[in-house]
Amino acid sequence: MSEDAAGWDYSALEVTGRMPVTNRGEGLLELTLEPLGEDYWMRPGETFIVTSYGDYGPGHPFEVQYWPDSVSVWCTSWFGTVSDDEGNQLSSGYQRPDGAYPR
Predict the structure, then answer these.
(1) Which end of the chain is more exposed for a tag (fewer CB within 10 A), N or C?
(2) 97 within domain boundaries
(3) Where is this region: Disordered (predicted)?
(4) 27-53 pLDDT, tens per residue?
(5) Alpha helices of the chain — where are they, by DSSP H?
(6) Any domain includes 101
């Protein structure tokens, strides 16, 4: 998501699901929002909220996949966003450690 997209107001769109994701580990955890591969990095104890917007058809608004140092959340709706637990929308690359990916 671009810096401009983080400032958009999605309040008029239908929210089809909200899911908190909390890092209960002792190190940095990567949360990837799919299908666009947006990355957000969670410190220990942090909670991010993934919000799904629009129709997701039959089934559910999210699919989640876990790996040792990362979690991927697939929004099966039109699109999704990631915010902190205070409701501030985050941009892709949030808290990304140096050297994690090319910029």
Answers:
(1) C
(2) no
(3) 82-103
(4) 999 999 998 899 999 999 999 999 998
(5) 3-6
(6) no
